[in-house]
């Protein structure tokens, strides 16, 4: 502790100095409450160092120790006046290292979405969280992190965040708020909370569930309603149907050789996407245990792009296909149980082939049903897995945290009460229900019937506009709590920083209804777990390890393989699918989740993995359907579904099923900030509560002459017959694959004898395995976060000036109605003979003795000659001052180790040189000259769920990257130019079923 | 003028059979030459001149507004992007540099080859060169992302302890172009001295005497002066001759040295130089035809001159055409699909119209000069010369933008769309060029009187015995 | 008659010389300015909030640099001592001195002492103390005879070429690690031999790759 005081670092949770300033005023928190005061702190710091704080964003930081003192002036204030000081444990590294200025320290925490947690390590520098990584010890992360986890850090520093609290239009101080909440609660006590309702999101948090239980005890007649627009009701119903009770389905791909995905985008969507991507990729290299993936889906998803066979069909046809497979399994594979389910279905050639493959791998195959499919499909999947003996091996089941799934049903119940005017106080902790509610539930109007609407809001939005109490919500990185992963593993959520703006968390809000808010979240979560663990005295130590590891050991739910009730499944499966007239509307989740990321500029600019559309969503149709309807990409159309209508631009998507319109959710916000308002269209406005995902009877009518400008980061999808992103069929590869790569690798003639890189202790290089890459784009966001890469906005992207150092190129081959897809992550390949270098007139881009192609921003005058001469076009130019006009809050996010580029300067991937230098200095200062393989990772490598990207030292023959460079699948991009890139690619191998490929 | 026309009539009846179209019509004596050639300087400012000047001034204003805006917001003001990181900026640069070739060629090389017909157009051409190079020199500066660091391109002992990269063609440009500018300036100025002195002596007002006096560096026309003058002029001519070839060769290296298909080719140096002379002569014609009409220089700038220039256009035009041909052939012959694609893309890609316009202007149009009537028809010449200039601009656009916008990886292909600022700068430089030229016409004799006088004497010696009229004049 | 007198020639020549000379002088002047203390900010006395005298603390009290600049061997920044460090001694000695009022105030209010930065590098330069100290570059090499400074001044130009001198040829600036903080250190024996020996002992490389300092 004394050390803290000595250096005065803003380390969250350290006890403040005993002589901390006492804060006057009703609320004990005035010290850091307002952003003004905050920036005053910064201003003071600035005064101390002439060219300090408010200069370049990066200048806020790494200005050495003096600045530390300055910043801590602000933060010490922060530290002083929160409810009792808390303790925090740095992950693995010695705690005192945390106190060194400018040294990054990772802390373990967890991030829950829709009630499912992913364990994270969040790097903080000088008390500011700046980068998210996955927690290797967490079962659903395994060290990986997706684009949404990565992007969460940006929301933390969003200047549009709600600060403080307003009750009935009156600003309230923290303690006043708690007092008034207590009184509100008290008024409901007499009638047992008959007129008290809670509208929450899905949650698995043991603490929150416990709080709900205790609130229900205090107010027996109060009700909790859980609503998620991305509902998994069908999934739950499917389990009930098959097993007679609610069960979570947990997939294990590492054992699965044959996988059939029924409209399931399991690689990029769902609670276990990160783990599944890892397990899937582990078996995509040629060999006996190479897996085969069949996907039946309507729109081309990343999973579909990774498939060996992709069956294009309407979502409503998936049920029929499932029954055909079941039929084939029953008839030719002798799985009698499935006969009844199959009913009269006649297996097609595809279905029989799939069935045969599945049956040949009993216990090592897996049938996955997507959450968008009706209960029957889920039930059939369960039945097939049971019949194939997969249950307990590649899939098992466990009790969910809550019986009834969050979704429209629960919302409907609430809506009834609201309509009846039976509700006096409605507490909303769900995210923006007015926007996410189904179109046939007019929550907006219903809320007016409620005298007191309490809304825990992160930003002003559609719902906060109708709430009478708007309560600022803390960011998940600012508060204590706990969260449950899909497999049941619980993590303690620990804050990385004190709330930057005054706000409280859901835990604290609910606690207020038990009169315990004063305790603060830390006390609540610790008390709960002390009681739960029953460890008594040993608790403190255990608590410590939980925080350090990021998981609470032994909380993973036990898996089971219950018996399937084939009769019931057959009953449900037997019902014919609804007769489809007109087009079929198919709602999908994309990068904005249910819309809660709609104001995240990183994600808005992030190109869609398949269409590469940036800053927009679009109604996607197949080329044939487009032709029939007389529309093309960009045509503005009016979509009508059951009297509901919305205007949208069309995108003609390759690989899309005919007669279906795919509608991505989460866009077209009305009351969002300037970045997100009216960006894209709100597909949710077409959605009814009965059919949340798939509904027939959609009408599409083009209107207007003017087209809508859809901007894409990649406009040309063909490889033009060039050897760029290569893929082979397993059979072809076995025969003569390696031979076909000979001209794409090996030594090239050079006029000058190359520099002697082999004398160096470090020889940096990278390997990218196209067989593992799913094209999820997680790496792109990770790179953006690590390297302070600017967001440029739609207009600039339209001029093709996006700044992403790392882009994922995507090429289609084969017939446009169902093409093969290859994704190729491409960043600077650090050519040993780099064309960019010799043309720069001022030596602003040169080569390091360790093989890095260095870009020196401060020397660059911006001739852009290097970009012209770069065959890979991976260089990015600051055509305008893209980093201008950042709010003080935003500046806090910048990575202090990376220079923020000024306009007129070229930039590009550096192989995360800041990480390299930090690691090198660490080892060399301590006398050695070796960095253990895997210890030093680039941002993209660290994020990648499928471990497709490997970076390391080529001078070490044992390193993973060296082995990749030796791999027989290795080839160099544009090898014939003789640039000798340090990034090697491994060709993608497909594993088609011979029975079908013939 | 009356005297002149009489004399004109006088000579018509003694046409030299070997030289039907003379390089000098009649045998005007020194005084008359001074009168006619200095007339534009001494005469009152004409209304036509004022109108043109106002227009040029407006366009110059536009130019510097556009440049100012670019400096304020950055290169983003232009249409450039990744992959097309170079566009109008460099297109204009190469175009103007090319135009700036005729002058030195005419003055230096033709001087060394003692071509009589250069005499009365050389100053004109040199001035044109100078002003074109000034336009060109703007671009290396304004196309920088951070122009305020432009001085880093010069090798000076800095406290950074780093030097410019001498391997970079852009650095070679800096030296090549600045050298060329300096040499052309000196050459032009030295050539001016005798006339400046003549102006000084023939000027009425004291102020003008002083001004022209200072600039004529105390020229008194003594034998000694003439001797030194001759030597200096020849030396400079010798110095400039290699420059004519070197400048555009080096400019072409910007492209030839890179590895981009469509740029990376060894034909560039010769074909750039040919193209440069091509466009240079075209520009001289474009300017000189109206000028000689306006100032009544028909007797010194005769059809002979125009015809010869037309011939040069035809010759260089053919060279350029050959350049195109060999480019395409080599691309096909190389068997490299990236190379082949670029040239296929020129003719079939989104920028095909520009490519076709280029072929029309640079390859087809000059063919008309096979006919002597076309060569001697003022209008044909003038329109053709303008088309050639357009064509040469298109050539640079095709080389730079079309090669860049679709290179190795289809994933990075993109379209370049010029912005208002791009256009303003292009048009603005034309205005600025015109502005300088109008000033030149107004305040400096646009035809070298002294050299024309020499020429006359040379002609007389050839046509000995001296004609009685001549003797009378002495 | 001419408008020019004979002396106009002289005037003309003088003017020419002035023009040429003036241009040359301006350029030369600028280049010079970048090198003299006025331009590099050397030898500049800076008013600190507390009259802290390094001379006294090092010579009279014999305090090692690292007692206050604690993190110099472990992090990028050498570390400006927190007020608490001052108070370790000054709670006992001079604890009534009015000169130390700002220190006590800082200690009790929790507000930092607004020291003024003396050695300032541009934001795009990433200097790391720990690696330099651990490879045998003494404090004195860059910061000069701090033991003779009543108030800290910047003694070295801190220009890039100055950094490069050593980065290109470190040997002359190396000393045994144990003497890192010694002021006025002189090598015994042959300095060249020692330099080369230390290069080996500490495995010192001449690092001139741009990303060594610019990231």
Outline the fold blueprint.
The complex is a heterotrimer of chains A (998), B (474) and C (215).
Chain A: H1 2-7, H2 30-33, H3 35-48, H4 64-80, E1 104-113, E2 116-125, E3 128-134, H5 147-156, E4 165-167, E5 170-172, H6 174-187, E6 196-200, H7 206-218, E7 223-226, H8 233-243, E8 248-251, E9 258-262, H9 273-281, E10 292-297, H10 302-306, E11 309-312, H11 317-331, H12 337-342, H13 349-360, E12 365-369, H14 375-387, E13 395-398, H15 408-419, E14 425-428, H16 433-436, H17 443-447, E15 452-457, E16 469-472, E17 481-484, E18 490-493, H18 506-512, H19 520-533, H20 539-549, H21 566-574, E19 583-588, H22 601-605, E20 613-614, E21 619-621, H23 623-629, E22 636-641, E23 644-652, E24 660-664, E25 694-702, E26 711-712, E27 727-729, H24 730-736, E28 764-769, H25 778-786, H26 794-798, E29 807-813, E30 820-826, H27 835-839, E31 845-847, E32 853-855, H28 865-868, E33 876-877, H29 888-891, E34 906-907, H30 913-925, H31 939-943, E35 949-953, H32 960-966, E36 970-971, E37 983-986, E38 988-990, H33 994-997
Parallel strand pairs in A: 6-7, 6-14, 9-10, 9-12, 10-11, 14-15, 15-16, 19-24, 21-23, 27-38, 28-37
Antiparallel strand pairs in A: 1-2, 2-3, 4-5, 4-16, 8-13, 17-18, 19-25, 20-26, 22-23, 22-25, 28-35, 29-30, 31-32, 33-34, 36-37
Chain B: H1 2-12, H2 30-42, H3 47-73, H4 88-99, H5 102-112, H6 119-142, H7 169-202, H8 206-215, H9 223-256, H10 268-295, H11 303-334, H12 337-348, H13 352-364, H14 372-376, H15 378-405, H16 420-443, H17 449-462, H18 468-473
Chain C: H1 7-33, H2 37-40, H3 54-60, H4 65-68, H5 83-90, H6 101-109, H7 129-134, H8 139-143, H9 160-168, H10 191-201
Helix pairs in contact in C: 5-6
User: Strand-and-helix sequence of chain B, N→C?
Assistant: HHHHHHHHHHHHHHHHHH
Q: Biggest β-sheet of chain B, characterized?
A: none
How far the N terminus sits from the C terminus of chain B, by CA atoms, comes to 19 Å
- What's the multimeric state? heterotrimer
Structural class of chain B: mainly alpha
Please tell me about this protein's structure.
The complex is a heterotrimer of chains A (998), B (474) and C (215). With 998 residues, chain A is an alpha/beta fold. In chain A, helix 8 (233-243) packs across helix 14 and helix 14 (375-387) packs across helix 21 (566-574). The N and C termini of chain A lie far apart (71 Å). Mean pLDDT of chain A is 86; it is low at 1-95. Chain B has 474 residues and is an all-alpha fold. Chain B has 18 helices and no strands. Chain B has helices at residues 2-12, 30-42, 47-73, 88-99, 102-112, 119-142, 169-202, 206-215, 223-256, 268-295, 303-334, 337-348, 352-364, 372-376, 378-405, 420-443, 449-462, 468-473. Chain C has helices at 7-33, 37-40, 54-60, 65-68, 83-90, 101-109, 129-134, 139-143, 160-168, 191-201. The chains are: A alpha/beta (998), B mainly alpha (474), C mainly alpha (215). Chains in contact: A-B, A-C, B-C. At the A-B interface, strand 29, helix 27, helix 28 and strand 33 of A face helix 7 and helix 12 of B.
């Amino acid at each position: 502790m004394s050390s803290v005081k000595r250096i005065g670092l803003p380390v969250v949770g350290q006890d403040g100095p005993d002589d901390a300033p006492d804060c006057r005023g009703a609320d004990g928190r005035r010290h850091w409450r307002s952003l003004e005061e905050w920036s005053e702190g910064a201003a003071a710091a600035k005064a101390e160092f002439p060219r300090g704080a408010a200069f370049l964003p990066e200048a806020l930081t790494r200005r050495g120790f003096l600045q530390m003192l300055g910043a801590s002036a602000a933060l010490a204030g922060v530290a002083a006046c929160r409810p009792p000081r808390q303790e925090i444990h740095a992950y693995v590294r010695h705690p005192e290292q945390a106190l060194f200025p400018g040294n990054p320290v990772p802390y373990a925490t967890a991030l829950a979405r829709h009630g499912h947690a992913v364990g994270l390590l969040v790097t903080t520098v000088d008390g500011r969280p700046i980068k998210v990584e996955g927690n290797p010890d967490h079962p659903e992360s395994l060290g990986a992190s997706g684009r949404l986890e990565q992007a969460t850090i940006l929301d933390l520093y969003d200047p549009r965040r709600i600060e403080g609290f307003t009750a009935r239009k009156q600003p309230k101080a923290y303690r006043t708020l708690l007092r008034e909440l207590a009184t509100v609660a008290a008024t409901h006590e007499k009638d047992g909370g008959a007129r008290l309702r809670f509208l929450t999101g899905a949650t698995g948090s043991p603490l929150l569930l416990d709080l709900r239980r205790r609130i229900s005890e205090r107010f027996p007649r109060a009700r909790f309603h859980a609503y998620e627009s991305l509902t998994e009701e069908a999934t739950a119903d499917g389990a009930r149907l098959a097993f007679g009770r609610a069960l979570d389905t947990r997939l294990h791909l590492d054992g699965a050789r044959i996988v059939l995905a029924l409209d399931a985008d399991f690689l990029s969507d769902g609670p276990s996407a990160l783990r599944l991507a890892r397990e899937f990729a582990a078996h995509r290299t040629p060999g006996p245990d190479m897996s085969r993936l069949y996907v039946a889906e309507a729109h081309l998803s990343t999973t579909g792009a990774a498939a060996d066979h992709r069956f294009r069909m309407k979502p409503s046809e998936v049920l029929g296909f499932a029954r055909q497979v079941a039929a084939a399994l029953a008839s030719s594979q002798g799985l009698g149980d499935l006969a009844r389910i199959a009913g009269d279905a006649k297996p097609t050639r595809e279905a029989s082939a799939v069935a045969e493959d599945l049956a040949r791998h009993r216990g090592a195959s897996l049938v996955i049903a997507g959450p968008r499919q009706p209960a029957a499909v889920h039930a059939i999947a369960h039945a097939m897995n049971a019949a194939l003996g997969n249950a307990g091996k590649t899939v098992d089941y466990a009790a969910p945290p809550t019986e009834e799934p969050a979704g429209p049903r629960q919302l409907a119940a609430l809506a009834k009460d609201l309509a009846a005017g039976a509700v006096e106080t409605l507490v909303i902790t769900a995210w923006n229900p007015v926007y996410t509610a189904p179109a046939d539930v007019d929550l907006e109007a219903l809320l007016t019937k409620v005298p007191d609407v309490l809304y825990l809001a992160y930003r002003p939005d559609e719902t906060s506009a109708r709430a009478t109490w708007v309560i600022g919500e803390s960011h998940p990185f600012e508060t204590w709590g706990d969260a449950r992963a899909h497999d049941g593993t619980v993590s303690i959520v620990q804050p990385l920083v004190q709330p930057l703006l005054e706000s409280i968390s859901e835990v604290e809000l609910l606690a207020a209804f038990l009169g315990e808010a004063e305790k603060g979240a830390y006390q609540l979560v610790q008390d709960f777990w002390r009681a739960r663990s029953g460890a008594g005295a040993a608790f403190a130590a255990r608590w410590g390890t939980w925080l350090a590891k990021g998981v609470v050991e032994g909380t993973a739910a036990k898996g089971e393989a219950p018996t399937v009730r084939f009769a019931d499944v057959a009953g449900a499966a037997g019902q014919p699918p609804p007769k489809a007239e007109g087009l079929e509307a198919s709602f999908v989740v994309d990068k904005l989740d249910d819309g809660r990321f709609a104001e995240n500029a990183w994600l808005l600019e992030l190109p869609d993995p398949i269409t590469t559309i940036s800053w927009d969503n679009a109604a996607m149709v197949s080329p044939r359907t487009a032709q029939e309807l007389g529309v093309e990409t960009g045509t503005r159309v009016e979509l009508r579904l059951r009297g509901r209508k919305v205007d949208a631009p069309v995108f003609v998507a390759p690989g899309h099923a005919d007669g279906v319109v795919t509608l991505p959710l989460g866009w077209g916000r009305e009351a969002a900030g300037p970045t997100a308002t009216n960006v894209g269209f709100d597909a949710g406005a077409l959605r009814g509560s009965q059919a949340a995902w798939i509904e027939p009877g959609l009408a599409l009518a083009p209107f207007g002459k003017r087209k809508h400008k859809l901007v894409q980061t990649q406009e040309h999808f063909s490889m033009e017959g060039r050897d760029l992103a290569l893929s082979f069929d397993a059979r072809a590869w076995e025969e003569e694959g390696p031979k076909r790569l000979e001209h794409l690798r090996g030594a090239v003639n050079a006029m000058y004898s190359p520099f002697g890189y082999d004398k160096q202790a470090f020889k940096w290089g990278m390997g990218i395995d196209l067989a593992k890459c799913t094209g999820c784009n997680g790496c792109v966001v990770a790179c953006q976060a690590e390297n302070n890469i600017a967001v440029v906005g739609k207009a600039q992207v339209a001029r093709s000036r996006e700044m992403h150092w790392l882009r994922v190129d995507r090429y289609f081959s084969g017939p446009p109605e169902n093409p093969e897809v290859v994704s190729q992550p491409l960043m600077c390949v650090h050519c040993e003979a780099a064309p960019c270098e010799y043309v720069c007139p001022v030596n602003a881009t040169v080569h390091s003795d360790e093989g890095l192609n260095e870009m020196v921003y401060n020397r660059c005058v911006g001739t852009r000659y290097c970009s012209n001469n770069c065959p890979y076009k991976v260089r990015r130019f600051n055509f305008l001052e893209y980093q201008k006009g950042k709010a003080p809050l935003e500046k806090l996010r910048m990575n202090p180790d990376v220079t923020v580029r000024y306009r007129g300067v070229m930039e590009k991937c550096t192989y995360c040189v800041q990480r390299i230098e930090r690691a090198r200095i660490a080892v060399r200062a301590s006398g050695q000259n070796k960095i253990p393989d895997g210890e030093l990772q680039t941002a993209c490598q660290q994020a990648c769920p499928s471990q497709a990207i490997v970076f390391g030292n080529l001078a070490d023959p044992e390193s993973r990257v060296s082995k990749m460079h030796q791999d027989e699948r290795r080839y160099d991009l544009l090898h014939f130019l003789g640039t000798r890139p340090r990034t090697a690619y491994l060709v993608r191998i497909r594993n088609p079923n011979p029975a079908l490929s013939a | 003028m009356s005297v002149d026309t009489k004399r004109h009539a006088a000579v018509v009846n003694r046409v030299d059979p070997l030289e039907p179209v003379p390089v000098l019509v009649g045998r005007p004596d020194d005084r008359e030459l001074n009168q006619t050639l200095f007339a534009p300087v001494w005469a009152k400012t004409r209304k036509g001149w004022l109108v043109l000047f106002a227009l040029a001034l407006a366009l110059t204003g536009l130019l510097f507004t556009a440049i100012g805006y670019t400096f304020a917001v950055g290169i983003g003001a232009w249409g450039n992007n990744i992959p097309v990181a170079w566009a109008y900026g460099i297109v204009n640069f190469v175009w103007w540099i090319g135009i700036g070739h005729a002058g030195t060629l005419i003055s230096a090389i033709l001087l060394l080859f003692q071509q009589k017909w250069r005499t009365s157009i050389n100053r004109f051409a040199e001035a044109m060169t100078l002003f074109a190079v000034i336009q060109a020199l703007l671009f290396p500066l304004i196309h920088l992302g951070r122009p305020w660091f432009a001085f880093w391109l010069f090798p000076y002992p800095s406290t950074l302890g780093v030097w410019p990269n001498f391997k970079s063609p852009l650095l070679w440009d800096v030296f090549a172009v600045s050298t060329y500018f300096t040499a052309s300036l000196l050459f032009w100025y030295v050539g001016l001295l005798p006339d400046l002195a003549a102006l000084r002596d023939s000027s009425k007002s004291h102020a003008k005497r002083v001004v022209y006096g200072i600039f004529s560096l105390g020229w008194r026309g003594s034998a000694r002066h003439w001797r030194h003058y001759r030597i200096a002029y020849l030396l400079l001519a010798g110095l400039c001759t290699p420059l004519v070839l070197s400048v555009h060769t080096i400019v072409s290296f910007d492209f030839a040295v890179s590895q981009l298909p469509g740029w990376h080719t060894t034909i560039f140096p010769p074909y750039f130089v040919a193209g440069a002379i091509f466009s240079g002569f075209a520009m001289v014609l474009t300017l000189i035809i109206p000028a000689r009409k306006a100032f009544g220089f028909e007797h010194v700038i005769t059809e002979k001159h125009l015809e010869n220039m037309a011939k040069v256009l035809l010759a260089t035009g053919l060279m350029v055409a050959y350049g195109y041909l060999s480019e395409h052939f080599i691309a096909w012959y190389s068997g490299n699909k990236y190379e082949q694609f670029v040239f296929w893309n020129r003719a079939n890609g989104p920028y095909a119209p520009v490519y076709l316009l280029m072929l029309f202007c640079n390859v087809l149009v000059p063919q008309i000069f096979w006919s002597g009537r076309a060569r001697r028809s003022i209008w044909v010449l003038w329109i053709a010369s303008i088309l050639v200039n357009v064509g040469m601009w298109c050539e640079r656009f095709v080389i730079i933008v079309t090669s860049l916008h679709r290179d190795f990886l289809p994933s990075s292909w993109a379209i370049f769309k010029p912005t208002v600022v791009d256009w303003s700068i292009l048009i603005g430089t034309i205005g600025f060029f015109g502005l300088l030229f109008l000033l030149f016409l107004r305040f400096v004799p646009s035809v070298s009187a002294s050299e024309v006088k020499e020429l006359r004497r040379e002609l007389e010696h050839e046509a000995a015995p001296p004609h009685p009229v001549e003797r009378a004049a002495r | 008659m001419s408008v020019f007198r004979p002396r106009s020639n002289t005037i003309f020549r003088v003017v020419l010389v002035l023009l040429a000379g003036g241009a040359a002088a301006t350029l030369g002047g600028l280049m010079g300015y970048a090198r003299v203390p006025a331009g590099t900010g050397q030898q500049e006395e800076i008013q600190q909030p507390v009259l802290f005298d390094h001379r006294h603390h090092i010579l009279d009290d014999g305090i090692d640099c690292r007692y206050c600049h604690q993190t110099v061997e472990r992090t990028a920044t050498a570390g400006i001592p927190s007020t608490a460090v001052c108070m370790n001694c000054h709670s006992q000695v001079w604890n009534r001195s009015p000169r130390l009022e700002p220190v006590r105030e800082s200690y009790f209010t929790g507000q930092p002492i607004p020291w003024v930065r003396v050695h300032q590098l541009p934001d795009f330069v990433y200097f790391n103390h720990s690696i330099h100290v651990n490879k045998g570059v003494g404090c004195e090499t860059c910061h000069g005879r701090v033991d003779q400074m009543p108030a800290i001044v910047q003694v070295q130009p801190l220009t890039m070429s100055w950094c490069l001198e050593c980065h290109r040829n470190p040997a002359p600036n190396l000393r045994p690690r144990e003497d890192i903080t010694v002021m006025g250190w002189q090598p015994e024996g042959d300095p060249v031999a020692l330099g080369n020996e230390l290069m080996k002992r500490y495995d010192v490389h001449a690092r001139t790759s741009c990303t060594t300092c610019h990231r």
